[in-house]
Amino acid sequence: MPGGTMVDVCRSPIAMSTGEQRRQTSPAVSAGRGVSLPDGYEPLPHQVAGHLFTNGKLGMLRRCGDGTAVLKPVQRSPKGPRELQFYKELSASQCRDELQCLRPWVPQFHGVTDIVISDGIAERQQTFLLLEDLASTLPHASVIDLKIGRRCWDESASSAKINAELAKYPQQEHIGYRISAMRVFNRTKNEFKYYSKLYGLSLDECAVLDSLHAFFYDGVGQRADVIRNVLSQLQSLREVFLRQSAAHFYASSLLIVYDGGLPASPATVKVKMIDFAHTFLVAGSGEQSLDENYLFGLTHLIESLSKLLEH
Ligand SMILES: Nc1ncnc2c1ncn2[C@@H]1O[C@H](COP(=O)(O)OP(=O)(O)O)[C@@H](O)[C@H]1O
Ligand SMILES: [Mg+2]
Predict the structure, then answer these.
(1) How are the residues of the chain apportioned to helix, strand and coil, as percentages rounded to the nearest 5?
(2) Staple partner for 157: which of 101, 146, 147, 153, CB 3.0–4.6 Å?
């Protein structure tokens, strides 16, 4: 692991006081039973949330020795094709202006690749998206995945799905976002701490603020330089969402990445939108409306980070 060891347990005063959870598995273990790792690939070592390539399940990969791209499996229809369509439309040369303004906020899309996957019984082709790796150049990448919006279900969700989502994290309705998972580099200890999905779901509004503080705490002090950089990027993104009505995002995340060992700069602090399995493009004609759900989350996240700087 470049730049430090990994610890699997999230041990901090904040984590413990809010129902600290152990991450079930390290993100970098082999797939075990079920789907096995294809030759020449490894699970994405800095992945924090989402489907992990563990326990025989498909998840994010990267080519061994090649940190430039992450490979995300195209999920079953309709989620996978929907996400692929979004990346394709966004990168198309004839992409309309309203959608184009989202380009700087999304990892670069390098097309798709098919990889032969084996589950020990049969082999099959699995399509993966090739995406810019947002942490590739950062040896001490602290990473947080924040699911944005007061609701995580799209228009097609059944009432059972809506109830399940509401029950999962009722606070999201008023907080407007949630911490899916994070890892934080501590430069005093030279190690990463992981905070799992269960940890994120255990947080009330006050504890969310403490956790954001923990994300920007590098073992020596709070990284105010990084928070300011992130805030300025989030404000620019909000400006985009105050104009664009070309796409609506549900259960999409903001990935914030910074290097815990380097000063804040455009090269060391990244704020990008990821996860478009529930992203819907709005046709050019017809009723246009802002993505109020996403805007609510973004505005509240900006407020939360601003509060961190006040203390
Ligand atoms: N472009 C990227 N660069 C770096 N890490 C990424 C990138 N995309 C995703 N990840 C990592 O993978 C995780 C899961 O990604 P996501 O697209 O949300 O997948 P899922 O559909 O499984 O939720 C994120 O929380 C992040 O840690
Ligand atoms: Mg996700």
Answers:
(1) 30, 25, 45
(2) 153
**Ligand 1 atom, smallest distance to 181 CA:** 25
Distance 275 CA to ligand 2 centre (A): 5
CA–centroid distance, residue 79 to ligand 2 (Å): 12
The H or E element containing residue 90 is helix 79-91
Tell me the pLDDT tens digit for each residue of 114-141.
999 998 889 999 999 999 999 999 999 9
- Residue 176: give its domain's CATH number: 3.30.470.160
Say if ligand 1 is within 6 A of residue 132 CB: yes
Closest approach atom of ligand 1 to CA 143: 27
Q: How far apart, in whole angstroms, are the C-alpha atoms of residue 108 and residue 91?
A: 8
Range of the domain at 152: 5-310
* Cα–Cα distance measured from residue 102 to residue 245, given in angstroms and rounded to the nearest whole number: 11
> What's the total number of domains in the chain?
1
55: confidence class by pLDDT, cuts 50, 70, 90? confident
Query: How far is the C-alpha of 309 from the C-alpha of 230, rounded, in Å?
Result: 12
Identify the H or E element spanning 177. Answer: strand 177-186
